[in-house]
Amino acid sequence: MATKLGSRATNLLLSNSVFLFSIGSNDLFVFATAQASALQNKSAADQQRDVAKLYASLISNYSATITELHAMGARKFAIINVGLLGCIPAARLSSDGATGACLDGLNKLASGLDDALASMFGSLASRLPGFAYSLADYYGLSAATFDDPGASGYTDVADACCGGGRLGAEADCLPNATVCSNRDQHAFWDRVHPCQRGAMLAAQNFYDSRPGRYTAPINFKQLVYTSL
Question: Which PANTHER family match (predicted)?
Fold first, then answer.
């Protein structure tokens, strides 16, 4: 970029660009799966230490990456935290009973990382010159959606629209998969991903809703127009 545009133009472009992050779900899901298979061999204290080590590792890597991007000229960061991971169809398959309830342990794991993320970005903002960010609360938005699905136009927040088997989550969304009749009424498209309507609602809430509702300290729109 610097070779083509010149250093000054490149720095201006980078400083006015918004860098969007939405990561962490896979790390937590893989960790929880490994923990579940080793529970019989670990005490509660050992499990808590493992969780603390996981958070420390993820936050350390996250912070180092953001700091490196800042050193390269990035200034505006939009971050989406981890949602109700225990409520995705793939996770519900592991719950007891036929209803496929959410996994509270997995949701608590996500909530703990989200708290650590909020603290981390607050710290980065205090020590990196010109650093601006908006942290979107996908966890809170997910919780509100599951508490009142009808308000978001959903009739099903448990099953995958595209897949197969129990909860539509025992098979991946492939060309021969079963597809629901109205995807906009399902919170989940496949066994792990939200539907298109869910992505749209998240975008609307994170971009232009009142700061403090699902974004902090500012929303994505305010981040875009922030002057540095």
Answer: GDSL ESTERASE_LIPASE (PTHR45648:SF67), GDSL LIPASE/ACYLHYDROLASE FAMILY PROTEIN (AFU_ORTHOLOGUE AFUA_4G14700) (PTHR45648)
Find the DSSP H helices in the chain. Answer: 2-5, 7-16, 25-38, 44-71, 89-92, 104-127, 138-147, 196-208, 220-224
Burial bucket for residue 175 (CB in 10 Å: 0-12, 13-18, 19+): exposed
What is the rounded average pLDDT of the residues 140-162? Answer: 95
State which amino acid sits at residue 24: G
**Alpha-carbon distances of 191 from 22, 26, 122, 198, 201, rounded to whole Å:** 18, 13, 33, 14, 19
> Confidence class of residue 40 from pLDDT cuts 50, 70 and 90?
low
- Predicted confidence at residue 33, as pLDDT, reads 87
Give the per-residue pLDDT at 97.
58
Secondary element (H or E) of residue 134: strand 132-136
